[in-house]
Structures are given as structure tokens and as C-alpha cells.
Design goal:
Blueprint (H helix, E strand, L loop, with lengths): L5 H27 L3 H10 L1 H61 L1 H10 L2 H4 L3 H25 L5 H30 L17 H44 L7
Helix pairs in contact: 1-2, 1-3, 3-6, 3-8, 4-6, 6-7, 7-8
Length: 255
């Protein structure tokens, strides 16, 4: 059973109160009046209040269409808002899917590192850099998407903080891949010094190799935090959408 609207209930109570007050003031003199002249005199004394009650009732009747119109406008506004907010929810879901995809892609980076560790650099120097460049391209595409989402949601929030942390972590993974390719080429085919490439000191080779493992773990943690933040925001957006849908169809909001 639907509850009566607060404004209609308040108006009804006010009207009933006024009627009772009027009846208390008029009925006594009328019933006590001994003749018609006294009755008319009693009505004359209360004519201002009676007129006010009539005007109040008329105003209430005139206000009912306005209330209905406002309720209809509220339903229409809610329906329009649903369309816009659904787009936001879908955008957040697409962003989360992108984070999960790059996370899966970087999980497969482990086999490439095993190849780097266990095989002679002279045996894989022709193929390994190409595989590493392919992973860098994946990182670049993901970074472009993440930067775009960051620019569109620049206001401070838990999700934005997690997004910026994930961007920094992914950039570190990419930089580590560049270092390993440089080390491999430096040790085999040589670098293009005329293009500005520089050697990495030999005592740093193992340090750079270990660093990519640390950066992968950092990315894994940052990606997990971003996934969690996005999931929470998605749930909240869909909860708001369901509320607006109930308003749009005129259903009572759940407590």
C-alpha cells in the first residue's frame, strides 16, 4: 500500500482542523439560537472565517494539478538522467575491463623474462627485442587509455588516486623493458649512439633485471587497487540508476 504524499497529508490535516474549529465556533451559537435572526447573526459574526476556509479549499483544489505537473516533471527528469548516468557506468566498466586486460597481458611477461634469464643473449638478440617491443606497444595503448580516463576525471577521489598510481606503475614496467632491450643490444648487436642511445653500466645490468620484477609486483598491486575502486564506483552508480528508474515510473523509493 502506497503512503500518502506528505504535502497532501499536511493539507488535509490543516483543512480538517479549520473545519473543526469553525464547527465548534458556529454550531454552538446556531443550536443555541432561539430564532432565525439569532442564527443569521451568528453566521454573520463568523463569515470571515468561513470565507477563509472556502478560499483555502479552492486554493487546495487549484494546487492539485500543479502537484501532479511537478511530479510528472520529476519523473521525466529522472528518466533523462538515467540515460546519461548509464553512459557513465558503461564507461567505468570499460575502463575496468581495460585494466584487467593489460593485467592479464603483463602476467604473460613472465615467460619472456624466463627466456631472457635462461638463454644466451646472442641466441635471442634478434627475436627477443621484438617480443619486448610488442609488450611495450601494449603498455603504450593502455597508458593512453588510462591517461584519457584520468583527464576526464581529474577531480580528487579514491578512484583517481588509484588510477594515477596504476599509470606510474605501468610506466615503470615499460621503462624496465626498455632497459633490458638496451642491455641485450649493448651486449650483442650494439646501440645506435648517433641516435642518442647510451650504454647501461655493466654493474647495473642485474640491478635493472631485478627491478622489472619489483615493478611488475608494483603494477599488480596498483592494478588491483584500481580494479577495486572502479568496482565500488560502478556499484554506486548502478544503485543511483535503480533509484532514478523507480522515480521515473512513479514507484516508491525503498528505505
Amino acid at each position: 500500500m502506497r503512503k500518502p504524499k506528505a504535502d497532501a497529508l499536511a493539507f488535509s490535516l490543516l483543512l480538517i482542523s479549520c473545519v473543526l474549529v469553525t464547527w465548534t465556533g458556529i454550531a454552538g451559537p446556531l443550536f443555541a439560537a432561539r430564532n432565525a435572526d439569532q442564527a443569521w447573526e451568528a453566521l454573520f459574526r463568523w463569515q470571515t472565517l468561513v470565507a477563509a476556509l472556502i478560499a483555502l479549499a479552492a486554493a487546495g483544489a487549484a494546487a492539485l494539478p500543479v502537484y501532479r505537473q511537478l511530479a510528472e516533471q520529476r519523473r521525466q527528469s529522472a528518466a533523462a538522467a538515467v540515460t546519461m548516468i548509464v553512459k557513465s557506468a558503461i564507461a567505468l566498466e570499460n575502463e575496468r575491463d581495460g585494466v584487467r586486460k593489460i593485467n592479464d597481458d603483463l602476467q604473460r611477461l613472465g615467460s619472456l623474462l624466463v627466456e631472457y634469464d635462461e638463454q644466451s643473449l646472442h641466441d635471442i638478440y634478434a627475436s627477443w627485442p621484438e617480443k619486448a617491443f610488442s609488450k611495450m606497444d601494449i603498455c603504450d595503448a593502455a597508458l593512453r587509455d588510462m591517461h584519457r580516463h584520468s583527464e576526464r576525471n581529474a577531480e580528487a577521489s579514491t578512484t583517481q588516486t588509484a588510477r594515477l598510481n596504476a599509470i606510474a606503475a605501468l610506466q615503470s614496467v615499460r621503462s624496465s623493458l626498455v632497459d633490458l632491450v638496451t642491455i641485450m643490444r649493448q651486449s650483442t648487436s650494439g646501440l645506435s649512439y648517433e641516435d642518442g642511445e647510451e650504454d647501461i653500466p655493466e654493474d647495473e645490468h642485474q640491478v635493472r633485471r631485478d627491478l622489472i620484477d619489483l615493478n611488475r609486483e608494483r603494477w599488480k598491486d596498483a592494478a588491483g587497487q584500481l580494479d577495486k575502486a572502479l568496482s565500488g564506483e560502478i556499484s554506486e552508480v548502478w544503485r543511483r540508476i535503480r533509484q532514478l528508474e523507480r522515480i521515473a515510473i512513479g514507484a516508491p523509493l525503498s528505505e
